[in-house]
Every structure is written in C-alpha cells, then in structure tokens.
UniProtKB/TrEMBL annotation:
InterPro entries: FAD-binding_Monooxygenases, FAD/NAD-bd_sf, Flavin_mOase, Flavin_mOase-like. The keyword Oxidoreductase applies. It comes from Clonostachys solani. One of its GO terms (molecular function) is flavin adenine dinucleotide binding. Signal peptide: none annotated. It holds the Pfam family FMO-like. This is Cyclohexanone monooxygenase. Keywords: FAD, Flavoprotein, NADP, Oxidoreductase.
Amino acid sequence: MAVSKPDYDAVVIGAGFSGIRSLWELTQNGLTAKCFEAGSDVGGAWYWNRYPGARTDSEAWAYALNFAPEVVDQWKYSERYPSQQEVQGYIRRIAAHYDLLRHIQFDTHVVSARFSEKENLWTITDKTGKATTCRYFIPATGPLSIAKKPPFLGLDSYKGEVYQASSWPKQNVDIRGKRVAVIGTGATGVQIIPKVARVAKQVIVFQRTPNYVLPGRNYFIDDHEADEIKQKYDDTLKKASVHPFGLAMDFTGKTADKVTEEKDIRQTLDSGWETGGFHYMFETFDDLFTSAESNANASEYIRQKIRAIVRDPETAELLCPHYPFLSKRPPCGHFYYEAYNRPNVRLVDVSKRRIEMYEKGIRLTDGEEHEVDMIICALGYDAGIGALSEIDVRGLNNQSLGELWARKLQTFAGVLVPEFPNMFMVCGPHIPFGNMPVILDAQMDWIGKTIRHMEENKLGRIEVPEKTADSWGDHVEEAFQATLFSQSAKDVGAWFVGGNSPLFYFGGVANWASWLDKEKEATWSEMQFTQPRGKALNHL
Ligand code: NAP
C-alpha cells in the first residue's frame, strides 16, 4: 500500500506557551509544522484573558521558558507578576525570535482531527472545511481554555452589557460610573473586582463559594533586580523544575510535628503571608498538603487576616472559607479583601440561591433583585479535558476522544492516549498541577526526543498500551488520595477534579518527569511502534 505524503510532518493546535514551545521543538528536529490558532495573535490564554487586572499568579522569574540559551534575552518582565500584555508580548517575542510566526495560521478554528489507520496520518479540519494532513498531531490547546457559558435563566432578556472575562473585548470597555455585577470569585474574579471597583459607580459581587485569597504583594522590577534575575535564569528554572509545583521555592523543613509552639507557628505563617503569593503555600509548612493540623492552622490564619482586613464583620464572615485550604486553587489577590471596605462594593451570597437574570439585572431565586448596567462573568472553565473534547478527535476504530474520556480519563503522563496513535498532547489532562511554562518545557522536550527516535528509526506509529495508561492513571489517583483535600476538593467543586477523578497529577513535577524519563531511558520499551507499512515491532 502506498503511503500518502502528508501536508506537514506535524500540526499543532494553539499558539499559546505550549504551541510556541512545540513549534520550536518540531522545527529544531527538522520537521515541517503548521499551527492553527483560533485567536488573531499568539498568546493562548494570554491572548483571550485581557480583562482588567489580568496578570500572572506565578513570579516573573519562574513564569518563563528555558529551552534554548538565548531565551533569556527575551525575558523583559517589569513586574513581579507580569500583566497580560507583558506575558503576551513575551510569547510574541519568543515566536518572532525563533521565526515561528510563519508557521502559524491565525483566526482558524479546528473542529475535527481524525486518524487514518491505513496511512498513519491525521487529518485536521477547520471550521471552513479545509483539511490538512500530518503524521504527528500536537494539540496544545491549554488546560483552561474553554470557558463555562453563563447558564443563567433569563440571560437573553437582560438589556445591559454582558462580558465574559475569558473573551474580554479588545476595544476599551467603559466601566466608569456604571453599576457592575461580577459573578465568580475564583482567581479571575479576584483580579477583576478591585480594578473595576476603582471606576464603577457600584460593584456587586455574587459569591457562591469563598476562596482563600493570598496577598500578591506585586512590585516593579528595577534594573538591578532584572540583572540578577537574568544572571540566575538557568539556576532559577532548574530549581523550579524539581519543585513539586514547578516554582522556584524552597522547602522550609517545618512540619506540624516539628513546630508546635504557638509563636513559632505564627512566625512561620506570617513569613509566608508577608512574602506574598504562593510563598504562603510552599514556604511555610511543608506538610500543608498532607497534615490536617498544619492545614487547619494555615486556614484559620487566613480567616483571621480576612477579619482583620474587612471592616464589616458580616462581609468578613461571608468571605471566610470553612473548607481546608488548598481544596480549591488559592487565587493571588491584589488588594482583594481591601476592596470590600470601599463604599461602592457589596458582597452578595449566592450559596443557597441561584442567579437568574431579568431585563434590568440579576434576580435571585428568592426574589431579591439587583439592577445593574453591566454583568461580568468569571465562571471558570471546563478544565483539563474541555478543549480536546470540544474538537471531534477520533483515533483507531473511529473512537471519539471526548466519549472515551467521558467514560474514563486515560492518558500516559498527560502526553499519550491509548488508541490515539501519534497524538502528543501538551498541557492536556493528567499533567502535574503547577507552574505551566516549566511543566510544558519538560513535556515538549520528551515529545521532541520521542519523535526524533521515531524519525531516526523510521517508525510510523507510536501507541501507548492501555495497561501502561492504566498504571499511570492509578498513580494519578493514588497521588491525589495522598492529599488531605481529595474529598473536600470534590465537595467544593474544585476545577482540578473532573467528575469524580483528578484531572491533574498531584505527585509533583519530578515524579511525573521520572515516568517520562524512565520510558526514554528504556528506549520507549512500554510503547508499541509500527513501521510505516504496517509491520509491527516489539521494540527496538
Ligand atoms: P474558577 O476558579 O473556577 O472560579 C469560577 C468562579 O465562578 C467560582 O467562584 C464559582 O463558584 C463561580 N461560578 C461558576 N458558576 C457559577 C454560577 N452558576 N453561579 C454563581 N457562581 C458561579 O475560575 P477562574 O477564576 O477563571 O480561575 C480558574 C483557574 O484559572 C485558576 O484557578 C487559575 O489556575 C487560572 N487563572 C490563573 C490566573 C493567573 O495566573 N493570574 C488568573 C485567572 C485564572 P464556585 O466556587 O461555587 O464553583
């Protein structure tokens, strides 16, 4: 049987961090590659999320790529937590520096991807019906890219302005003097609320579940600090690559059994709180994820801070979470709790009543009405599997990926899926929960080496056996069960749990990487390879 020549060796979907990193890896390996991107520019999440206050929650020195020596030259962040504009600019600079923009076709919405068993080729089809064939299919669609649509009854009857944070308009949205409703108090809502409060006439925040919001303590990076960051660039990213969550942070050696004096516990938590952001999670008690005692102390500490910051006791109580810290991903705030001290900000509890809409604003199911000029929805995402389930991806025997995952989420280390040959996911489900740029660097490095192995040995197809994926799946579950929030995260509807199983790996970046490394070191012995003309090889 003659094998058709594909249009490209590889097709990448998405031009965010992971898509750009993928294009670099593929072109370095001498492959022809095409990238389809739904937006009109690079950036992915950082292209779409241009809402007021959008910035990273990871620190500028760790929210960076490290795949080639000159990448450091593209690092020019000016704040501890770079803004959306800066991050998008960074991604664009990287893409331009490595001449990757020419491989990207913007404004292109991919609707399906089908594998041909006879030819070992994928056919990627866009919304206009145009089909492109390739040997390697690299969905780099992001873990948080499909926003939840507002489910509110009566939405169509509402006459005011409605915005989704995740697809904020490019043109200026005039908020000045308006009565604004914000629905959602996750990391997105927490960034929007203090910004909007500065200019709106009134802000009404609709909160279903409170979050433990950590103070970001953002600042401008001056030339001296920028110099230091660049000098330490490699070391910082090396350190981040072995940190369980991909951050350049240190264990403190402190645990509940070692630090028992009230004043020492306080000092440890004060130190993390004052340093700001995720340092409260990772540089206070090393057992926050596993010790009920440490976690309870850290949770109570934040509740006390909320009560100290927010002047109105009733509002402060509503803002206090009562589930274990980390059951939801803690947002990084910039004067979030302080915003509730403004006379124009009001918190409305919707934990026991549903939001509906009417002509003039929001009506709760108990009849309470709030007249507003604008509604901002920050409702979160169909995380992990959403983007790939939305595209009609079909592997062997016309099997649908969305349907497979609806039954059981199966991957090997968040990269491969049984019965979906030659599909390499970047930042798909089952990757470690943590700082994405660091994780995807490692992931794409492994994918690059695997593809190189296939190219050098003329292997037409890679498949991961179901039992290998099952072992990984069991390990993902085991790592999640080892956290103290495995049940409470489900109870509070954390986005990193899908249905009943974890969408992400909580065993740490290094452990995850060891599964990939082991496979590479054993010359991919668990994988099944097939030569282009269908002759099966056990392994090389
Ligand atoms: P999220 O954490 O899932 O928060 C969504 C919010 O909307 C929650 O408060 C949720 O309430 C509420 N909500 C959803 N449906 C609702 C309904 N029908 N009625 C009332 N409230 C409703 O989503 P997110 O804020 O977009 O953040 C998701 C993740 O994206 C973050 O955890 C983070 O990893 C990432 N992110 C990162 C940054 C950054 O790095 N700077 C910024 C933004 C987002 P419940 O809690 O009750 O469900």
